[in-house]
Amino acid sequence: METLLWIIGCTAAGGALSLLLAAALSLTLLMPWVDRMVSYAVGALLGVAFLDLLPGALMQVRYLQLKSGTVLQGGDAKALFAVMLAGVLAFFLLEKAALWRHFHEHGTHSGVKPSGMLIIVGDGFHNFVDGVAIAAAFLVDVRLGIGTTLAIIAHEIPQELGDFMILIDAGYTRGRALLYNLLSSLTSIGGGIAGYFVLGHVQAALPYVLVISAASFIYIAIADLMPDLHRTNDSRGKAWQVALIAAGVATVTASHLLPLPH
């Protein structure tokens, strides 16, 4: 029971702390640059998807196979990427449905883009997986669990900053963006509890949860955010876009260089 309390406390504190730090950073330094920060969000989302979530899914499959004494086969990778393709198409249909409701709801002119809800869903998946990872670490050793939590907080700050900027760009107020991001971060508690009680079953599904989360981030970056960037025609604006996309990817890459607990 003490381990479970550690898991709940660290998942709750980790999600809230990373979100609040990202929100504070955006409010104090970056809010005048909201339009430019969309470029940063594109880089951060694509960086997390391609450099973190997808490799993590393949590594998790490999771990499960080593544990069971089997060898990685091409079919396993194909299954993962088939789920990813299904995820991209599912998010496309979800956005279509959201757009359909938006245009057919009489008297509703909120100006909120459907990409905002998609980023909340995708971030919820990611935070759930983080909760499972924290639970797995605590089941091995409390010190390992604390170290894993600190590493996840450091990794989450740039992503939460990007998500916060996306919600602002999607038409949410600062307060609503913070609230919805906070609610999304609470899924890490559910992941931690699930990981504690049924970790074996969650581990088998974990690679597929990772690729679905990656699919949501890739879809949002490419289908929702990048088209907005094409509206900029001046050379200086384009240079800022390229630089900030690179900065978003670089931030994710730099977070991987942080010392991880063993």
Q: Can you put this structure into words, describing what you see?
A:
The structure is a single chain. The chain is built from 8 helices and no strands. It has 262 residues and is mainly α. The protein has one domain (2-255). Helix 1 packs antiparallel against helix 6 (174-185) and helix 4 (115-140) packs antiparallel against helix 5. The chain is globular.
Provide the fold topology:
Layout: H1 2-30, H2 34-68, H3 74-104, H4 115-140, H5 142-169, H6 174-185, H7 187-229, H8 235-255
**Structural domain tally:** 1
Query: Tally the helices: what do you get?
Result: 8
Give the C-alpha Rg: 19 Å
* Uncertain segments: 101-109
- Indicate the overall shape: globular
Care to count the β-strands?
A: 0
Average pLDDT rating: 78
Structural class: mainly alpha
N-to-C series of helices and strands: HHHHHHHH
Strand content: under 5%
Main sheet overview: none
Note the quaternary state here: single chain
Helix content: over 70%
CA-CA gap between termini: 24 Å
What's the gist of this structure?
The chain has 262 residues and is mainly alpha-helical. The chain is 86% helix and 0% strand.
What attributes characterize this protein structure?
262 residues, mainly alpha, 0% strand
